Each structure stands twice: as C-alpha cells, then as structure tokens.
Amino acid sequence: VGTDEYDEGVEEELTQEEALRQATELIKSIASGKEPLDAPRLGSLLWVLSNALLEELTDRDDLRVPGNSLESFPVELVKQIMDNIETLTTTLTFDPEDAVTQRSGAKIPAIGSHRVAAAEILAVLLQIGCQEIDERIAKLKLPNDGQFVLVSLIRMFFKYSWSSAFHATVISLVLAALVSPHEPLWAPMFEGGEESLQGMLAASNDRDLATKLISTRDGNVGSVIILANALCELEACDDTERASVRTTLQEDARWRS
After folding, report:
1. For the chain, what is the radius of gyration of the CA atoms?
2. What is the pLDDT averaged over residues 4-32?
3. Residue 19 and residue 86 in contact, taking contact as beta carbons nearer than 8 Å
4. Residue 95's pLDDT is what?
5. How large is the angle between the packed helices 76-83 and 39-57, nearest 10 degrees?
6. Cα separation of 116 and 149, whole Å?
7. Which are the contacts of 178, defined by CB distance < 8 A and separation ≥ 6?
8. DSSP class of residue 208?
9. C-alpha 247: how far from chain center
10. CA 136 to CA 74: how far, in whole Å?
11. Separation of alpha carbons 164 and 169, rounded Å
12. What is the 3-state secondary structure (H, E, C) of 41-69?
C-alpha cells in the first residue's frame, strides 16, 4: 500500500542519461511549483536509474578498491548521479495523495513510488563502499526541514508503516550506512532521544509487540524487528569505529528496557 504503479515501458524507451536528465528537470520543476507532482511519471524515471545502477554494479570486482575516489570511479552512471544527488533527494519532500486501503476503504498516508525509488538509489550508492560517496551523502539535508536525509528516511520508515518495499529499502540503507567507517554518516541516526533510531524502535516494539493483537499490528512490525536485531548485533561487536554508538545504546534506558 502507498506506492504508485510505474510504467515499465519507460525503461525500454529511455537511455540512462535521458532518464537522469528528465528526472532532474522534472524534480526542479515540481520543487519550484511550475508543475504539479506526477508521482507515477517521476517514479518511473527514478526506477530506471535505480535499476540501471544495480545492473552496472553487479558482479564488479573493481569497486571496493582502497582509496577509490569518486573522480576515478569506474562506473560513469554513479558519477553522473552523484553530480545530481542533491536534486534527486529533493524527491523525498514530495508528498503524494493519500492511499485508500482495499479492506476498509480508509485513507492512509502514501509513500509514493517516486520516494521509494529515490531511497533505493541512496541505498545502492551506500552499498558501494566508496568513502567519498559516503561523505557526500552524510552531508545531504532535505530543503524543506533541514534534516539529514538518512534521519528523515528513518522517520518516514515509522510514519509510512504499510509500505513493505520502502521498509526493505530503508533496512538496506541503514545496514549499509552502519558498515561505513565514516561516522558522520550514521551517528545522527542515534541522536534525538525519542526520535532517534533506537528510540523509535523501542517505542514501536512496545506498542506493537507488547500491547496489540497480531491482526492489529502495524505493517512494518517485521522490519522493526530486523532493525532492532541489527542494533543488538552492533552492541555485541567490539570494533573501535562504532564504540560511540554502543555507548549511546547502552546508556539509553528506553532502548535497554
């Protein structure tokens, strides 16, 4: 629930370069108010880019080279997307119309296929393991609220509780970020008290697992468990790079309870 259908035919009609050009132009036009949000069209363009990224990066042995810089990165599409990454992430600020549930006909907030695709692009980029990419993404903030992009995506994970595709993407993104040695990428996720990653996971666990019947739990309960288990595994590690996170988790009374 909450994602729009996208036209798979777009993939056959557009080159990667043309899809990127059209997507960035459309995003800028929507952001400036010149055009209304066309979520299916924008989603289609961004999924072309996401799928192309995955195809370009599959079975490559030359990507995780120590010191591999963005300038010398062997995949041109990665460099082109990073040149437009600020524009592409603006997509996350575009709210689509509410979705209508099939069972009850009630309206619920929709995530939109365009935002799932934008998040997927970020997740794929973080999985590359290039520190320069990690550093650039760590600095990204959304123009509407000035929040770090990764923090905003985590909050959206809990707000849009009925989008399994989005939940899977955010899980991939968080796990990829936690592997990075670049602390400014993942440290903000653990700040903010009740609005931190561990704070919202603890609240969700309390609400959905301890007090609700299975039939009335939110749709993201399984994804919440996956992320909570990932943080528990992080606590059990002994690497020095994430020592500050372990301290934060161990000192968080709500998380520990």
Report:
1. 19
2. 81
3. no
4. 94
5. 140
6. 13
7. 186, 230, 234, 242
8. I
9. 25
10. 18
11. 9
12. HHHHHHHHHHHHHHHHHCCCCCCCCCCCC
47 vs 93: CA distance, rounded Å: 17
Distance CA 17, CA 3 (A): 25
198-233 exposure pattern, b = at least 16 Cβ within 10 A, e = fewer = bbbbbbbbeebeeeeeeeebebbbebbeebbebbee
User: For 15, what's the count of Cα atoms within 13 Å in the CB-facing half-sphere?
Assistant: 4
- pLDDT value, residue 1: 45
Kind and range of the H or E run holding 94 = none
CB 75 within 8 Å of CB 127:
no
Q: Which two tokens stand for residue 44?
A: 């289609």
The model's confidence at residue 239, banded by pLDDT at 50, 70 and 90, is confident
Q: Where are the beta strands (DSSP E) in the chain?
A: 99-100, 107-108
∠210-211-214 over CA atoms, to 5°?
Answer: 90
DSSP, collapsed to helix, strand or coil, labels residue 107 as strand
CA distances from 236 to 7, 63, 84, 245 (A): 44, 29, 38, 11
E strand or H helix that includes residue 177: helix 164-179
Q: Residues 170-186: pLDDT tens digits?
A: 999 999 999 998 999 99
Closest to 6 in 3D by CA, of 68, 67, 51? 51
Q: Is the dihedral of CA 4, 9, 11, 17 positive or negative?
A: negative
Amino acid of residue 60 = R
